[in-house]
Amino acid sequence: xxxxxxxxxxxxxxxxxxxxxxxxxxxxxxxxxxxxxxxxxxxxxxxxxxxxxxxxxxxxxxxxxxxxxxxxxxxxxxxxxxxxxxxxxxxxxxxxxxxxxxxxxxxxxxxxx
Length: 113
Prior knowledge:
By secondary structure, this protein is an alpha+beta fold. It has two helices and six strands; from the N terminus they run H-E-H-E-E-E-E-E.
């Protein structure tokens, strides 16, 4: 389950940011998770709840903002957020599209004290 290694890297980032800003505690961790990132949100939540114990994030709320897939058409320039995974441009029906969002996971913000 790669969610454990993802959470460990996330906790390391939180520790680093807290040290950089002189924070003693992290209250909230906000992430953005693309639907194509390969991350299973339920497993990530469980891993975070398990591994935050004894860290600076021990009492932190974990917020996951799920990012749908966004594509851009190389033919007409249209950007579209997809409801289902169909990489065809909704405007001109071209298959010459590229994914511009929805594949990554990011740490978006931290609330610290």
